[in-house]
Amino acid sequence: MSTNTRSRASTVLRSPVGDERTRFSSQAPQILACLDEDMNRLEVTRHARAIAKALDLQLGFAQIVETAPHGVLPADPIEWNLRFTECRDGIGELIGEASETVSDVLPVVLPGTAHERLIDWAEGHRGSVLVLARHSGRGPHSGLGTTADRLLKSGAASMLLLPSGRERKCSAEYRRLLVPLDGSPNSESVLPVVTRLAQSLEAQVILAHIVSPTAELPSLETQAGSNRSNTSARARNYLETWKLRLLRQGIDATVYFGTDSETCERLNLIASRLEIDLVVVASHGQTNLASAPYGSVAGALAKSAPCPTFIVQPDLRIPLAKPGRSGFMFEALAAETEFAS
């Protein structure tokens, strides 16, 4: 797609209701359900609605109408109008269902390439969340599809990634939340979001800390037993401290500590055995490479977790406790909870 064509396309949102020339500008954060014409459409709708209600954020439904190669619109205007009409009608039906639990739902129909248009939208709505299936109902059913992969690599927004409907139908009630922590402030930055979700949904929170065996190896063999014991004790105390702080917020919390060289595989195993409904993980953990859009654990969970995975970027904005205020996740950490010591 040429630069000029893409720039013009990104300035207008097309809506199935009301004025279809809503300007694309920097707006309040939203939950955007990214719909495709496949079997995942209803799953994406259900989970986007649940997250929007729990976080008290506006909900939008987005349908991308793919253009012809090089960004050229179809030559037949009748065909093009029919495609837009079908999208508008389809979103209108979904909005009718969503409006029962979430008010003020925004419809969005955009022409262009899916990942490019959604990145454009995310850049105009900083601090938002994109909700989509890991891959479509077509083709291979493992890892990430092209759109999900490119959106994740862009780091443009927080993402809620859902297993394909062919893998597993997942509950959107989120009764059990798994939260991986690695001892870094980055991993802990998801806790305001976890707190909001848990309180809104009356969910249980399982805090997990997986330590690599190599982190426990001492420099002297004679100190091996003592060193391992101290490392394990520190890790358990770390989890218990956060558990206590969640309990003070009225949240049912428990902890899981383990040692494994394959952190993601162990987390996936925990998610399966404990019937986790949602994994909430920070985009970056201990390594915090500024040049990378996400860390190794977040990236691995995005591709293989057996349940929906909420990858939270630092710019995610959630409403604060005081009416009329909102703030970045790090601000919420200090202002809304007792987590800051």
Automatic annotation (TrEMBL):
<protein>
    <submittedName>
        <fullName>Uncharacterized protein</fullName>
    </submittedName>
</protein>
<dbReference type="InterPro" id="IPR006016">
    <property type="entry name" value="UspA"/>
</dbReference>
<feature type="compositionally biased region" description="Polar residues">
    <location>
        <begin position="1"/>
        <end position="13"/>
    </location>
</feature>
<feature type="region of interest" description="Disordered">
    <location>
        <begin position="1"/>
        <end position="20"/>
    </location>
</feature>
<dbReference type="InterPro" id="IPR006015">
    <property type="entry name" value="Universal_stress_UspA"/>
</dbReference>
<dbReference type="Pfam" id="PF00582">
    <property type="entry name" value="Usp"/>
</dbReference>
<comment type="similarity">
    <text>Belongs to the universal stress protein A family.</text>
</comment>
<dbReference type="InterPro" id="IPR014729">
    <property type="entry name" value="Rossmann-like_a/b/a_fold"/>
</dbReference>
